Amino acid sequence: MNVKITSVAKQLPKYYRETKDIIPFVKIWMQDQEERFQRKVIKLFEGAGVDKRYSIMDPEEVFTATSFEEKNDIYTREVVQLAEKSLKKSLEKANLKATDVDYIITVSCTGIMIPSVDAYLINSLGMKQDIVRLPVTEMGCAAGVSGIIYAKNFLKANPNKRAAVIAIEAPTATFQLDDFSMTNIVSAAIFGDGASAVILSSYEEDQGPIIVDEAMYHFYDATHMMGFKLVNTGLQMILDKEVPQKISDHFPEIIHPFLENNNLTIDDIDHLIFHPGGKKIVQTVEDLFGVLGKNINDTKEVLRLYGNMSSATVLYVLERFMDRSPAKGERGIMLSFGPGFSAQRILLEW
After folding, report:
1. Residue 112: which domain range?
2. What's the CATH number where 161 sits?
3. Which family is this sequence assigned to (predicted)?
4. How far apart are the first and last CA of the chain?
5. Residue 109 annotated among the catalytic residues of the structure
6. Are 181 and 230 within one domain?
7. Torsion sign over Cα 277, 282, 284, 290
8. Are residues 223 and 340 part of one domain?
């Protein structure tokens, strides 16, 4: 029995700005900082590889001294709407109803809400009363792939079932107004908000790429490299500058043994569905794959158009490939990195 990805659909928030239109807000925010530092920050925003980003808040709200409670209230209100819209779109693509879903996984790390988003979707969409729920809250950028892995394992054990994985993220709600560290600034320069929903199936008649294999890879002694610290003003980003080098050092062990376990090499892979963590990480991975004769152009394009939307971003890359309908027999690798520090991998075959 095979588990397939039958549809993917994204949903963007209502607010958006091109980076050039955000720069004036950044200048006002930085006005009391040393002039040389201000120029460095503006240059960072302009060179981040992000032309546009979407947000659950307009820029005035983002650059206002709102409390954690106020920002989290906006998060809880908006992510439920984004999740519902993206799931409806994905169900429509797959010609399914909400009651056709047996397992629902929601992933998000950029706000706090109990009950989790899935509970609201069950009510608003009238989903099955015996649907199995799994909220994933603390895996950061890796959680989109992680959610698909959990769904695949559920479906592998349960023939004739379907699962929905919905990733909803609002990193702009984590922006720290009084924090002028490079971590906060880099985060503001690369992150955007967005949602995406994936439908998976273990029905034989349902169509889509087969999940051939999946695996996680955990880096030792790297828990300090990525994540959030809960402070009085909200979720404060942790992002170590050594992350790109860490990825580079472990890259051969992440890619080659995984493929070898499936009697494949990188030459057998047609599509690279990689999470765009940021310009430096993208450049690092592009260099590593480039040596192997592969490109990550779709990853770069998603970063340019939307920024890094944490767990949802790799699903935007996946949707681009799905919408192009790759030829039968073509293969792809999904790859994302997240707190832990860990790498999540999925091998697909159309």
Report:
1. 3-202
2. 3.40.47.10
3. Belongs to the thiolase-like superfamily. Chalcone/stilbene synthases family.
4. 15
5. no
6. no
7. positive
8. yes
Dihedral, CA of residue 54, residue 23, residue 34 and residue 184, to nearest 10: 10
Instruction: Say yes or no to pLDDT of 292 above 80.
Output: no
The DSSP symbol for 173 reads G
Q: What six digits make up the tokens of 232?
A: 């009085």
DSSP-assigned states of every residue in 239-307: E-TTHHHHHHHHHHHHHHHHHHTTT--GGG--EEEE----HHHHHHHHHHHHHTT---HHHHHHHHHH-
pLDDT single digits (tens) 69-79: 999 999 999 99
Give the pLDDT band (50/70/90) at residue 307.
very high
Bond before 252 cis per omega within 30 degrees: no
CA–CA separation, 336 vs 146, rounded Å? 9
Catalytic residue, from 50, 87, 109, 141: name it.
141
pLDDT over 90, % of the chain: 79
pTM of the model: 0.94
Q: Which residues contact 24 (CB under 8 A, 6 or more apart)?
A: none
